[in-house]
Amino acid sequence: MSGLRVIIEADGGSRGNPGPAGYGAVVRDAGSGEVLAERFASLGVATNNVAEYSGLIAGLQAAAELNAERVAVKMDSKLVIEQMSGRWQIKNAGLRPLAAEAAALVGKFAEVAFEWIPRERNKAADALANRAMDGAAETSPVAAPAEKVAAPPAEKPKSWAPPASLTDATRIILVRHGETPLTSQGRYSGRGDVPLTDEGEAQAMAAAGRVAGISRDIAAVLSSPLSRCTRTAQLIADEAGGLPVTVMDDLIECDFGAWEAKTFAEVQEQWPDEMSAWLASTSVAPPGGESFQAVAKRVRGALATVLSAYPGKVVVLVSHVSPIKLILRDALAAGDAFLHRLFLDAAGVSTMDVWPDGNIAVRSVNETAHLR
After folding, report:
1. Three-class SS state of 173
2. Which of 337, 172, 201, 192 has its CA nearest to residue 252?
3. Is the distance from CB of 106 to CB of 112 less than 8 angstroms?
4. Catalytic annotation present for 177
5. pLDDT tens, position by position, for the chain (372 residues)?
6. What is the pTM of this model?
7. Which of 70, 160, 274, 308 yields a CA-CA distance of 20 to 30 A from 264?
8. What distance in Å separates the CA atoms of residue 76 and residue 87, rounded to the nearest whole number?
């Protein structure tokens, strides 16, 4: 299909914004209008804008697999079209990784043009997005001619019953360290041992007060070995009655390798292909760094150790963005996209209960009221 010109019609939606979300994308031959590929999938709980970007990404991926050279993207999302055309800034930090992934795909084609169209001209993609949101859709084939795909029968909802005892859970309080100079500048901060700023100290003290409000019966305060965490943990331990701080090496941040202390924009400019691959797969590591899969493995081990050592107790874990996100991803049974969509503030607090039978209840994510 050398020289193939295609039209991508893409859409996404969320019933609740955020709420149950899904996307759809149709790839057509630019000359005949023939449908060459369709893609649609559920995203779980997400926003409209995340779903719209996901539809764009799916359409670009399908066009790339068809070896298209020139692409016309048509969407009824003014925001996505204007941002991808470079006319609007991407102010929402949660959309930047998705925009970067889309931009990396755009670079694979000889030409890509973006056009806004009214919703009534985007009915095919909209129908696929709604099908995905209905929860009865699977991703359809990409490189084969489009065909109707029968939706699988909807799974019977699993009943939820509370644990036999509500008192024997281990409560895990997850605290991200306070602000550092790199945090305030939006730079990757992995293994570098940067201290808290004055603001970070104030944030850590506020987090200590919040933790005390959750429980006055804390059994242990565990911390990453880096000083931004141990200092935050010490303030929490002092507020809890002078507990010792126990360092757990496996709670350390992801090793960002060559990207350490760089901004997202700097990494995107200097390592565009590596960034695209990293955003697409948790098995990919930054140059000279560590993959999220590797971080997840050691963090799971650390959590298992905590649950074994402190059954039925309240334990505080002071760590970094990546380990905390991975713990919450697993607790919520979320997909890998969760890692790029969840924002964790400096000194934000999250809480979950884990029962001996493996049941988990996530009670809060990224509490920040104590920082206001």
Report:
1. strand
2. 192
3. yes
4. yes
5. 458 999 999 999 887 777 788 999 999 999 999 999 999 999 888 888 889 999 999 999 999 999 999 999 999 999 999 999 888 888 777 788 898 889 989 988 999 999 999 888 999 999 999 888 886 333 333 333 333 333 333 443 444 555 545 568 999 999 999 999 998 888 999 999 999 999 999 999 999 999 999 998 999 999 999 999 999 999 999 999 999 999 999 999 999 999 999 999 999 999 999 999 998 899 999 999 999 999 999 999 999 999 989 999 999 999 999 999 999 999 998 888 899 889 999 999 999 999 987 889 999 999 999 998
6. 0.58
7. 70
8. 16
User: What is the crossing angle of helices 272-280 and 96-106, to 10°?
Assistant: 120
Per-residue DSSP letters for 177-225? ----HHHHTTB--SS--PPP-HHHHHHHHHHHHHHHHH-S-EEEEEE-S
Q: Which of 9, 179, 253, 367 is catalytic?
A: 253
Q: Which of 177, 179, 274, 290 is catalytic?
A: 177
Cβ–Cβ < 8 Å for 270, 259: no
What distance in Å separates the CA atoms of residue 144 and residue 122, rounded to the nearest whole number? 22
Q: Please report, in range form, the residues annotated as the binding site.
A: 228
For domain 5-133, the CATH superfamily is Ribonuclease H-like superfamily/Ribonuclease H (3.30.420.10)
The order of strands in the sheet holding 70-75 is: 35-46, 19-29, 5-14, 70-75, 111-116
**Residue 320 annotated to the active site:** no
CATH no., domain 170-371: 3.40.50.1240
Radius of gyration of the chain from its Cα atoms, rounded to whole angstroms: 23
The greatest distance separating any two alpha carbons of the chain, rounded to the nearest whole angstrom, comes to 74
Domain ranges in the chain are 5-133, 170-371
The C-alpha atoms of residue 372 and residue 203 are separated, in whole angstroms, by 10
